């Protein structure tokens, strides 16, 4: 019976001790991982108090005093005198060190130094690892979209990494700050009410040091598209992605709730109907950026089924149909599976605003006729410039050969 009671008592005492250890671990984790300095400070106090209970502080204090008062140095010096030749207290006896002892000491020094070097290498390897930070609250938390709609700016901080989105003159500027001592790979998932989805591709920051992948991603479960921006930052660095490099144009869609629904409104005129759009013709200018995206559908299911575009390199030049030839002053690429079109402008060889693109959505017969005339004019100009129509003067038949 006494043995059973002692066993039960031991169990309850063990539970009590484990509870203190559990508190110590909880306080330690909170003090390290919490972003709030006040909460981390309180947790640090908890760590100190529980450590005072768990660890033999008096013995630790006595050991530190032994080092501080020179006791450790005296002990090491006495050992040094015992083993080194000619260093014994009476100098008449040789030290007790021999070849085997020297070899053992060398092996100990080699092992300790190897462990130290390995530890430093592991620490350096850990510091070179890249952490992953995902800021998806821009997408999942509707409060951020509402704040951006009210103030034209929004920011988010996670694991000390801060990102922000600002709107300036139809552009969006993305900034990020990494004060940590390690590199981070940042992924931002942004709601379409903050940044209209567009397949932009690679975008360089203002210093041309960091490249971000700017993609249009579709969530099939939620049936919505959003912008995903991914880039890697060095330790203690900040980046700003230049808005002048990217512009997303918004089409003037008709309001489906207020548009007419009579049978006359459903008749399509070949000369004047805009279909789902209030306006069908838009002019894009190279001063607005080297890459400009035009979405071909909106969130209400309205879409542009057909389009054409022409470009020119000056107000006095003829309009030329745009193609996918990247050697031209302007060319296009389809993106997002045909849901958007990106226009690329040559801003290296032409001045700001010198290259213009005229984009026409859902062209009617009049638009098609104008486009064909411009195509013929551009083709005729090319033929003349390549001297295809030039004719050589005939040689005189009366020429006399001596």
What does this structure look like?
With 402 residues, the chain is α+β, with helices and mostly antiparallel strands. The protein folds into 4 domains: 96 residues, no CATH class; 31 residues; 107 residues; 105 residues, no CATH class. The protein contains 8 helices and 17 strands. The C terminus is likely disordered. This is DUF1616 domain-containing protein. It comes from Natronorubrum texcoconense.
How would you state the average pLDDT, rounded? 75
Q: What is the number of domains? A: 4
Shape descriptor reads: elongated
Measured by DSSP, the beta-strand proportion falls in: 25-35%
Question: In DSSP terms, counting alpha (H) and pi (I) runs of 4 or more, how many helices?
Answer: 8
What's the gyration radius in Å?
Answer: 38 Å
- Unreliable spans are 257-273, 386-402
Summing up helix and strand content along with how strands pair, one would put the structural category as alpha+beta
**Share in helix:** 25-40%
Main β-sheet description: 5 strands, mixed
* Span between termini: 145 Å
H/E topology pattern: HHHHHEHHEEEEEEEEEEEEEEEEH
Strand order of the largest sheet: 1-5-8-7-6
The total strand number stands at 17
């Amino acid at each position: 019976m006494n043995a059973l009671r002692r066993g039960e008592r031991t169990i309850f005492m063990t539970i009590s001790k484990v509870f203190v250890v559990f508190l110590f671990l909880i306080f330690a984790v909170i003090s390290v991982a919490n972003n709030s300095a006040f909460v981390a400070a309180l947790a640090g106090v908890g760590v100190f108090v529980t450590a005072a209970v768990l660890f033999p502080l008096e013995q630790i204090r006595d050991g530190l005093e032994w080092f501080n008062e020179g006791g450790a140095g005296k002990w090491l010096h006495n050992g040094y005198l015992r083993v080194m030749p000619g260093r014994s207290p009476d100098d008449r006896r040789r030290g007790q060190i021999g070849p085997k002892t020297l070899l053992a000491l060398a092996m100990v020094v080699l092992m300790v130094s190897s462990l130290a070097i390995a530890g430093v290498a592991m620490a350096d390897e850990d510091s070179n690892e890249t952490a992953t930070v995902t800021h998806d609250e821009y997408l999942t938390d509707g409060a951020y979209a509402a704040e951006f709609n009210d103030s034209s700016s929004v920011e988010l901080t996670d694991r000390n990494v801060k990102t922000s989105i600002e709107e300036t003159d139809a552009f969006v500027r993305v900034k990020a700050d990494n004060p940590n001592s390690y590199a981070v790979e940042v992924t931002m998932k942004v709601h379409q009410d903050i940044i209209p989805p567009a397949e932009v591709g690679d975008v360089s920051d203002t210093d041309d040091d960091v490249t971000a992948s700017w993609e249009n991603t579709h969530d099939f479960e939620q049936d919505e598209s959003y912008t995903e921006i991914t880039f890697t930052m060095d330790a203690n660095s900040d980046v700003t992605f230049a808005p002048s490099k990217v512009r997303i144009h918004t089409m003037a869609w008709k309001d489906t709730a207020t548009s007419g629904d009579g049978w006359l409104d459903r008749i399509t005129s070949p000369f004047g109907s805009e279909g789902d759009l209030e306006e069908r013709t838009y002019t894009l200018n190279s001063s607005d950026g080297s890459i400009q995206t035009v979405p071909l559908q909106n969130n209400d299911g309205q879409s542009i089924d057909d389009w054409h575009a022409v470009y020119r390199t000056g107000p006095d030049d003829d309009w030329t149909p745009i193609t996918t030839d990247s050697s031209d002053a302007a060319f296009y690429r389809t993106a997002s599976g045909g849901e958007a079109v990106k226009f690329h402008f040559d801003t290296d060889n032409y001045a700001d605003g010198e290259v213009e693109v005229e984009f026409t959505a859902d062209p009617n017969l009049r638009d098609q006729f104008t486009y064909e005339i411009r195509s013929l004019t551009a083709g005729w100009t090319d033929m003349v410039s390549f001297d295809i129509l030039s004719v050589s003067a005939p040689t005189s038949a009366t020429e006399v050969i001596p």
